[in-house]
Amino acid sequence: MRISARCEYACRAMLELALRFQSGDPVNSTLIAERRGIPEKYLVHILLQLKRSGLVQSVRGAQGGYLLAQAPNTVTLYDIVTAIDGPIEDQLPLGDDASAELRPAWNRVAQGLKSSMQKILLNEIAENADKPDMYYI
Amino acid sequence: MRISARCEYACRAMLELALRFQSGDPVNSTLIAERRGIPEKYLVHILLQLKRSGLVQSVRGAQGGYLLAQAPNTVTLYDIVTAIDGPIEDQLPLGDDASAELRPAWNRVAQGLKSSMQKILLNEIAENADKPDMYYI
DNA sequence: GCACTAATACTCGGATAAATGCTGTCCGAGTTATCATGG
DNA sequence: CCATGATAACTCGGACAGCATTTATCCGAGTATTAGTGC
Fold it and tell me: Which of B88, B91, B96, B99 should we substitute to test contact with A (largest number of A Cβ atoms within 10 Å)?
C-alpha cells in the first residue's frame, strides 16, 4: 500500500515540466534533477518510462530535453502513477492465486483509489506550487 | 501502491475468524492456514500482529487458538490493513524529505484510500463468502 | 475415585535465511546543435 | 560568406551492483488441556 520513491520522483518531474510547459522548449534531465532533488541518472530512466507511456515527449541532441506530451490540465495523478507502477489491479491481490471472497473488496479499493487519483490534475498541483504556503488538513 | 501478500493473508485469516465468530470457541492457526491456503508458520506472526493491534484475541494451551476481539460488523478493511502495514501516511511520500508541492495531492489520495477502505466491513465480506458466485465488475 | 505427573497441543516471540524488488550507477550508442576552420 | 568537420550537449536503453523489504522458516519458551498412573 505504499508509494515508491520512483513514483514520487516521476510526479516531481512532471510538476517541473508542467511549470515550464508554456515556454514550449524542452527541459533537460540535469535541470529537473537539480530543481527537484532527484538523483540524476535515476531520473533519466523514469523520464523514459513516462515517455513510453505517452505522458512526455523528448527532443534529442544539444538543447534537447523533455516536455509534457499533453497539457497539464489533461494529466491526472492516476496517469502518472500507473505509468510508473503499472495498472493498480496488478498491485492488489486480484490474480489467480487470490482469495475469491476478498476479490470484491479489493476491487472496491482499487476503484476508490483510482477515482481519487483521477480527480487530481497536474495543473492543480502546479498552481498550488505557486502559492507556497498552503496547508491541507 | 501495492498490497502485500502479508496483508492479504491477514484479511483471509480475519475472514475465517469472522465466519467462526458465532461459535465462540477459538480457532487454531493450523486450521486457518489449511482452510485459507496460508503458510502456517508465517500466519502465526501475522495473527500475533493482529492481536497486538487489538483485532484478535488468543487463548493459549491445548484447545486454544484465536478469535476476533470485536464483532465482524465493527471491523473494517482499513483496520486490518493498517494493523499490518501501519498508518497509510507512513507509506505515502509525506515525510520530511517529501516534496511540499505534492503533499496536498498525496494527502487527498490517503484520504480517498482511507475512506474507501473504511466502507468495507468484515461482516460484508463474510456474508458474500456464503454466496459463492458473486461477481463484481 | 482422587491426587499427581507426564504428555500433548497450543500460543509467543526473537533470530535468521532466502527471495524479491527498489534505488541508483555505469557504460556505450545514437542524435542534434554549436563552434571552429579553411577556402 | 559558406561548406565541412569536430566537439559538446543531449537522449536512449540495457546491464548490473547494493540495499531494503518481504516472505518464510526455525527454535526455544510459556501455558493450558488431556491422558495416564499410583494409591
Answer: B99
Q: Tell me the residue length of chain A.
A: 137
A8 CA, C12 C1': Å apart? 39
Q: What is the mean pLDDT of residues A107-124?
A: 97
What per-residue string of b and e applies to B95-130 under the rule 16 or more CB within 10 Å gives b?
eeebbebbbbbbbbbbebbbebbeebbbebbbebbe
d(CA A33, CA B2): 26
Expressed as residue numbers, the domain containing A55 is: 5-130
pLDDT of residue B74: 98
Segment B52-107, tens digit of pLDDT: 999 999 999 999 999 999 999 999 999 999 999 999 999 999 988 899 999 999 99
Q: Is the pTM of this model over 0.90?
A: yes
Q: Is the pLDDT of residue B112 over 90?
A: yes
Protein CA at A2 to nucleotide C1' at C10, angstroms = 35
CATH number at residue A117: 1.10.10.10
Q: Is A135 part of any domain?
A: no
Q: How many CA atoms lie within 13 A of B81 on its CB side?
A: 29
Q: How many domains does chain B have?
A: 1
3-state helix, strand, coil in chain B (%, to 5): 55, 10, 35
Q: Count of CB atoms within 10 A of residue A105's CB? A: 24
Quick check: is B136 in a domain?
Answer: no
Residues A85 and B124: their CA atoms lie apart, in Å, by 30
Nearest CA in chain A to B130: A101
Q: For a pLDDT cut of 70, what percent of chain B falls above it?
A: 94
Probe site for chain B from A32, A38, A81, A99 (most B CB atoms < 10 A): A99
Residue B132 pLDDT: 54
